[in-house]
């Protein structure tokens, strides 16, 4: 029962109309929705009032119960990545969604990537008409897993409008979530070289790691949808760099890597860096 498909977009579509109706009917203004709960945990949406340019910052908070996990954007061998859809009636588009640094969670032969603790996933929306109040209808779909995986879908509604000052509680939640995101590449932490072998069975990497890093880094590479590499081999120091190889495994049939971008997350000590690899 763990091997649930990684993408379940059709489940959300049927729930959007209900979410939009809730948004229109809510009384008063709220920046934090009530918690929605199931057997494995609970989740809710936190959102800031719209900014003058129509930007809306928010987060999906997920709190698994003790012993349960939820998933990163690529769940690993099995599981359900978080998904969010916003009602068309809300007049918003999803600009971005970010993911705090996950952990690899081994469970027998399954290798999950996710969170065994409370997590907040920051997102950013753009309003079509910033001059209007925002009745936000949203649907979230996540997986919560223990011995079995339970798909968890919930509808949310929030009424957002101009306000004086900054809502302190919501701002603290979003700032805390942002502090847990991977950093961008920098002079002391970056991918310095990468190359795919001609047979496309191995990805070779060289990394610049933060000073004082002694343990081998954990590297997760996300390729085509649902394809994750996290079994680095031949890890070694190469001058000031750290080199390793990532077995690619079986790519989708007729997959053309030219022009594609793969994601890479490197966790070294208490720091994590995320970037992309462009294949020409």
3D architecture notes:
The chain is mainly β and 280 residues long. The chain is built from 2 helices and 19 strands. The protein has helices at 9-25, 168-179, and strands at 36-38, 41-47, 55-64, 70-76, 83-86, 92-97, 103-107, 110-115, 119-127, 134-145, 149-160, 190-196, 202-208, 218-222, 228-229, 233-238, 241-247, 261-268, 271-278. The strands form 5 sheets. A 5-stranded antiparallel sheet has the order 1-2-3-9-6, covered by helices on one side. Strands 12-13-17-16 form a 4-stranded antiparallel sheet, with no helix packed on it. The radius of gyration is 20 Å and the shape is globular. The two termini are 39 Å apart.
Rg calculated over all Cα atoms: 20 Å
The N- to C-terminal Cα distance equals 39 Å
- Tell me, briefly, the overall form: globular
Q: Output the strand order for the largest sheet.
A: 1-2-3-9-6
Order of helices and strands: HEEEEEEEEEEEHEEEEEEEE
- Biggest pleated sheet: 5 strands, antiparallel
Low-confidence stretches: 1-30
Give the secondary structure arrangement, pairings included.
Blueprint: H1 9-25, E1 36-38, E2 41-47, E3 55-64, E4 70-76, E5 83-86, E6 92-97, E7 103-107, E8 110-115, E9 119-127, E10 134-145, E11 149-160, H2 168-179, E12 190-196, E13 202-208, E14 218-222, E15 228-229, E16 233-238, E17 241-247, E18 261-268, E19 271-278
Antiparallel strand pairs: 1-2, 2-3, 3-9, 4-8, 5-10, 6-9, 7-8, 10-11, 12-13, 13-17, 14-15, 14-18, 16-17, 18-19
């Amino acid at each position: 029962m763990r091997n649930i498909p990684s993408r379940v977009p059709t489940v959300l579509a049927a729930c959007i109309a209900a979410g939009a109706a809730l948004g229109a009917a809510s009384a008063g203004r709220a920046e934090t929705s009530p918690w929605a709960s199931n057997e494995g945990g609970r989740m809710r949406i936190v959102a800031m009032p719209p900014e003058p340019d129509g930007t809306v910052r928010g987060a999906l908070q997920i709190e698994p119960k003790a012993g349960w996990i939820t998933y990163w954007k690529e769940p690993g061998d099995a599981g359900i990545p978080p998904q969010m859809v916003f009602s068309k009636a809300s007049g918003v588009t999803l600009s971005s969604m970010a993911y705090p640094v996950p952990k690899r969670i081994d469970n027998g032969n399954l290798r999950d990537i996710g969170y065994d603790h409370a997590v907040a996933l920051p997102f950013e929306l753009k309003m079509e008409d910033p001059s209007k109040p925002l009745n936000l209808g949203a649907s979230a779909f996540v997986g919560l897993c223990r011995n079995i995986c339970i798909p968890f879908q919930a509808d949310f509604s929030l009424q957002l409008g101009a306000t004086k000052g900054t809502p302190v509680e919501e701002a603290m939640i979003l700032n805390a979530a942002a502090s847990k995101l991977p950093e961008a590449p920098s002079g002391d932490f970056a991918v310095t070289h990468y190359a795919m072998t001609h047979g496309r069975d191995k990805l070779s990497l060289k990394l610049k790691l933060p000073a004082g890093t002694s343990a081998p880094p954990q590297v997760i590479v996300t390729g085509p949808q649902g394809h994750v590499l996290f079994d680095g081999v031949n890890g070694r120091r190469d001058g000031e760099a750290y080199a390793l190889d990532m077995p690619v495994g079986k790519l989708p049939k007729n997959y053309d890597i030219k022009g594609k971008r793969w994601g890479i997350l490197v966790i070294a000590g208490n720091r994590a860096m995320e970037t992309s690899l462009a294949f020409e």
